[in-house]
Design a protein that fits this description.
The protein is of the alpha+beta class. It contains 4 helices and 15 strands. It has one domain: Alpha-Beta Complex (Creatine Amidinohydrolase). Helix content is about 25%, strand content about 20%. The strands form 5 sheets. Strands 1, 2, 4 and 5 form a 4-stranded antiparallel β-sheet that branches. Helix 3 (about 160-175) packs antiparallel against helix 4 (about 185-195). The longest helix is centred in the N-terminal third of the chain and has 21 residues, at about 45-65. The protein is globular. The structure holds 2-amino-4-trifluoromethylsulfanyl-butyric acid and cobalt (II) ion (2 copies).
Length: about 300
């Protein structure tokens, strides 16, 4: 283990003394803090983990059901209906509905919509669009949260493919970075470096999140480097989402007058993929993947 004395130069490379930099508390937010996270701070109990496995599995089954139904000519309200009906038919709850006033059972985010798009009967998807469908279900009290971006039809622009494939791979890279003993900073850095090397940008105003009985729990899971993420140690039993939003242009977003729909500020295309994960002794278990589906 790395042992640092307070007057040593800080290993983060700042050039300052460790006690004035990452070693300072509570302001010190560096990776090489002398104080570590209280053990098991975010870890779930075995019963909670069993509940999370069930909700993740249901969410994955619903996505599997929905995937082949997506086609040009559907409205985003049609997709909302499919998700809503399937969820209720299986005895579960669509988490978005009435969550902080959200009016629908799923988020549908088209083209330059980054996230939290509201399904509408007048929004009809057409050849060449990219559409993200973000499904969150509550199963026996526990949340599962996953999303995918779909190509609509076949006439997909090079930029739409670039942003979508970059987001798809960014999630996989994030999943591979999850290991006990690492931090959320390591996950964020891996995603950010990949996305930026492809000439795209990582959205900053929205992040992944802890998840369990709550939809959005601590900690925040950013997809770009932040000082706070250096302090969050990955420990077995933690459950959280990874859900990088990738823009073809600048990362900045704005929220429309409906109070929900987040769009790229520059009008560029945006894509996203999301899974709910469990940190294990060995690394990661993707709770929103179907058993037997290829590992990331
Ligand atoms: N599913 C989104 C997420 O990944 C949150 C949607 S909140 C809602 O965190 F209210 F818009 F549904
Ligand atoms: Co989420
Ligand atoms: Co989601």
């Amino acid at each position: 283990m790395l042992k640092i004395r307070p007057n040593d130069p800080c290993p983060c490379g700042s050039g300052r003394k460790h006690k004035k930099c990452c070693g300072a508390e509570p302001e010190g937010r560096g990776r090489f803090s002398l104080l570590s996270q209280k053990r098991g701070r975010y870890a779930k109990s075995p019963e909670e983990i069993a509940g999370m496995r069930r909700s993740g599995r249901f969410n994955a089954e619903l996505m599997e059901y929905l995937r082949p139904l997506i086609r040009p000519g559907l409205s985003t309200e049609d997709i909302n209906g499919i998700v809503h009906e399937y969820t209720l038919r299986h005895g579960h709850i669509p988490a978005p509905l009435n969550y902080r006033g959200f009016p629908k059972s799923v988020c549908t985010s088209l083209n330059d919509v980054v996230c939290h798009g509201i399904p509408s009967a007048t929004e009809v998807i057409k050849d060449g669009d990219i559409l993200n469908v973000d499904i969150t279900s509550i199963v026996a009290g526990f949340h599962g949260d996953m999303n995918e971006t779909f190509y609509i039809g076949t006439n997909i622009s090079a930029t739409a493919r670039l942003v979508t494939e970059t987001a798809r791979e960014a999630l996989k890279i994030g999943l591979r970075a999850v290991k006990p003993g690492r931090t959320l900073y390591d996950v964020a850095a891996a995603i950010q470096d990949y996305v930026e090397a492809r000439g795209c940008s990582v959205v900053r105003e929205f992040t992944g999140h802890g998840i369990g009985r709550g939809f959005h729990e601590d900690p925040q899971v950013p997809h770009y480097r932040t000082p706070e993420s250096r302090k969050v140690l990955l420990e077995p039993g933690m459950t959280f989402t990874i859900e990088p939003m990738v823009n073809a242009g600048h990362w900045r977003t704005r929220v429309l007058a409906d109070g929900w729909t987040a769009v790229t500020e520059d009008g560029s295309l945006s894509a996203q993929f999301e899974h709910t994960v469990l940190v294990t002794e060995a690394g990661v278990e993707v709770l929103t993947a179907l058993p037997g589906s290829p590992p990331f």
